[in-house]
What does this fold into?
Amino acid sequence: GGDGGAPAPAGEADGFEDAPSIDVRLVGRAGLHARPSTWLVEVASRYRSEIRVRHGGRTANAKALASLLKLGVEAGETIRIVARGPDAEAALEALREAVEGGLGEQEEAEEARAAAPAWRPESNGRALAGVPASPGLAIGPLWRFQAARIVVDDRPEGEPAEEARRLEAALEAAREQLETLHDEVEARAGKSEAMIFRAHQALLADEDLRGEVRVAVAAGHGAAWAWQRAVDARVAEVATVADPRLAGRAADLRDVGQRVLRLLAGEERGAPRFPGHPVILVADDLTPSDTARLDPARVLGLCTAGGGPTSHTAIIARSLDLPAVVGAGPAALDVADDRPCILDGTAGRLYLEPSAADLASARRFQAELRGERDRAMETRFRPALLRDGHRVEVAANIARPGEAAEAVEAGAEGVGLMRTEFLFLGRDAAPTEDEQVAALTEMTRALAGLPLIVRTLDIGGDKAVPYLSMPAEDNPFLGVRGIRLCLRRPELFVPQLRAIYRASVTGPLLIMFPMVSTLEELREAKETAERVRLEVGVAPVPIGIMVEVPSAVVMAEELAREVDFFSVGTNDLTQYVLAIDRMHPALAAQVDGLHPAVLRMIDLTVRAADAAGKWVGVCGGIAGDPAGALALTGLGVRELSMSLPSIPPVKALLRGVTLAQARAFAKRALACATAGEVRALPMP
Ligand code: PEP
Ligand code: MG
It folds into this structure.
């Protein structure tokens, strides 16, 4: 049925023929797998309308996770969403925003490529190559992990009523387990990593599935058997989707299925028995539940035969800080003796026959890495003073009020970029002026005197907000976004500026305008700000702009005379300089902010600012990348603003070099012909 089971073939009349529809393309690198689908279901479920998603000749219910998963939509593909009901238009707009916003999948992609130092073996014994999934080295014996798969017969333990009670109790217990797992993983690894367990809860809540099992139990079948049969049928359907990358979806269903079966059949069955010593765990694939339950004290690293870099094994391994290689192929499963092996999660290799010298050098390398990281954490509150005393400010990029306190705890010396648009996303109406004052004041309080750079609303491009009813554009990244939108929408801009000025009395606060491409825009924005400031009746605050459009670089001399500072947004600058959509699934790998074309643009910007006596910061992804931080420092950038985990290692890195070394590195980088050449430069 169209309500949650198999996607219906299109063409069949389903009553949606005249319903309003939108076509949207999935952005980012993920298709409609479990986490993005859960996000979509959550948005759809806020509306009363019936909503369908059509793709490849099939139709799924947007409120039923299992149904969506079976569509097998890949990254970059376009789906049609149709809605029928009282709030159909609003639902479609909200869904468009959710899909175009990446369904929670694309955060920090731009910062994820930080180059980790490499270890190389001297000998060339047998090795398996897979996909690097979580960096670092693990040394130890392999151990084959096999989660005993529970299979039950149709043997009811009691009357149908009793079986029905057992079923409901197991479903509720499974829901509670997932709630606990979610909270644990969220605390350890963050919201988006924990989403997978919300996805599992949604699979569990699938009324279609439950209904089918209840009917079977009422007809006299055992609860465990009926559940197993219904889940297996769904797994089989998902598994028929041709793309092997979609196998992960079947794994999620199987995982939830086994969780409930374990509860029905007794917890002892299916519990893995670990050896008494720490191991490198090899498995065919790991379910999210298996991975989350791993005891990091007993597991040195993970290697799976299947899976990809975005698999849950990879995500959770990173959150547990366990080196991991995925997709190493079935040969990984054949190895089983007690000889120590080396797993290199950075290079994606499993060395099966390391020499004694390799083991020794790997141990040294491991100890060095660990020492470096511990030192970086211990010294994170110290300033990033280069060896010759030159100072670079290291600040944080944040999006929520609560993150200000976390930034301070991570060692940030201020907030270099507060993305205020996040105060506007995921709601039905814009936040009021008072709400914005409260959010900003929470930040200045947490920062206790450290500077807060508030970027005014950067909506448009990839970030749409349904209640702003922005007309569709053919080229949104070249359209009404950032400051262009604000200048056209005083009803948004003025209250935001009022809130910023009101909050400015509670701590040092700077204003930054996004996406400025012409002098006229800057002047108009400054005039509006000044009018608002006089109305509010407070002292002036420094005003700067994001430099993220090539015209701003070329006109930097003129712009610099009329601002207090620049902050280079390398994420957008890279996209506009290279003419590559930063979200393009097929091209994303080439969008590297260390491309010499981008570095030369930054060089021009710094020179122009220097001439006008103004300072330059960088708040795009390369600020938090080791090679990027070094090159930018050498180019004369004074402030680097980055995501929180990058702060301690970048500060430590900068404290280890001289300005002359950084300048030499920058000079060589500017002279390179390709991004690859820059990435290959040796760091001091
Ligand atoms: C940038 O473009 O580099 C930037 C920091 O802004 P955002 O990523 O929010 O567009
Ligand atoms: Mg930007």
In short: The CA atoms of residues 182 and 194 lie 5 Å apart. Residues 548, 569, 571-572 surround magnesium ion (ligand 2) (CB under 6 Å). The longest strand covers residues 137-144. The radius of gyration is 27 Å.
